[in-house]
Structure formats: C-alpha cells, structure tokens
Amino acid sequence: MVPKLPDRIYGCIYKKERLATVEENILPDTFVLKIWKPFPGLGNDIVIKNIPEFYFLVMQEDYPLGSIEKISEKINNKYDKGFHAVVGEISVSGATYPVIRIKNFEKKNIIQELQCYYLNEGFHFSKERKLIKAKGMIKLKKHFSLKEVKEGIFFDLEVEELGYIRIPCKLDWDKFERITQRIKIDVALGAFDAATGVFYIGKNAVDVIRVFNPKRSLENLQLIKKQYLREIGNPELIKVN
Prior knowledge:
- The protein is an alpha+beta fold.
- It has five helices and eleven strands, in the order βββαββαββββαββαα.
- It is 23% helix and 36% strand.
- α3 packs across α4 (218-232).
C-alpha cells in the first residue's frame, strides 16, 4: 500500500516549447509570450477537447509563488475569469525572463484585463519587449495535488489527463528528448506529451516525468515508465553530455 501524500506538494516542471510574442490585446509597453501549440508530443492526429491557452506575462522581477497564488485566487473569485496562474521563468533567444504563466480555460481575450488586475495589486511588468518566435525552455514553479496510485506512479487530481512517473535521476533536456524520441517508436504506448519535473515530498526531491495523455490510465503509465527506466539504464545514452 502506497502512503498518502500531503494535500499540496511543491514542485517544478521543465518543458521546451515553441513561443511567440503576443502583439494584440495586451497593455502598452508590456511583454507577453504565448505557446504556439500546447502538447506537441501528441502529434496532429489527436484532438483534445477544451484545451486551454497558455500565456506568459513577463515581469520585472521573480515574484513568490504564494503571492501570485493568493492574488490570482482573489481575482478569480471577484471577477470569475476562469484562469489559473503559477510562476516560473523562460529562457529563450539568449535571455531568461521571470514570468507568470496564465492557463486560460475560456479562450477569451482576458490577458489585458488580468494585467490591469495584477498591476493594481502592486505587481510590475517588464517593459523590455522583444519579438520572439522560437523554442524556449520553460520552468514552472507550482503546487500539485497528487495521488500515488502505484509505487512511483502519480495521478494529478486537478487535471485528469496528467500523470507522473518517478525516475531514479535527473535528466537534462537533451538527454530526455533523445530518450523520449526513442521510446515513442513503440506504438503500444500511444500518443503522449512529456516533460521533466521534480516534486519535493518531505525532505526528499523526487525526479519525475510528466505525461499528458487524453486517455490517461495506470496501465499506460506503467508501460511508459518501463520504457523510460530501460532507456535511462542504457549507458550509451547516459554518458552523452
């Protein structure tokens, strides 16, 4: 029997995505990025219902996660905007920016409104705006609500498509990407999008792979975990720098 986890677990997710500068429906002299196509690992044949949009408000400084969570909850409760916010940073085109990541469920033009709300609460946006259309590395810092359904396999309790598998070591992005490309050859795994991450559970840092699958199941995550563990144990991959 796996132990019960705390209600909220702090952790980070790392993902490389195609990013583009948002040029309309934002406050003047601010810098906002958007993911071109979320969850690219699913390919073009998988249709996801109600997929949210992901925006990144570039800030003047790195604000604490707790402050953003508190103010975002206040904004949502007062104005019913249907969004979720976490903090993070983006490294793209040779620079790194502190950001608030906005998950917009309603697909309405709410970003300018949200900027106004955050501004009124004392948060400040970067005025250094750049035109970007490139892949960038995203680090998100957030709290998770999880259930360990089997040792080393977790279900996300807030997003039904998300699962996480524990791995024995941290992988840099290039190694992780090579391993993912190799295991996706196995059609039995189905289509899924993957990212790396870490959970801080008690005094332990738990390295994980985040799996997004519209048909999430324990059986599928077990298959994916088995393949990743096999490839991580391949010395030809591990020794590549």
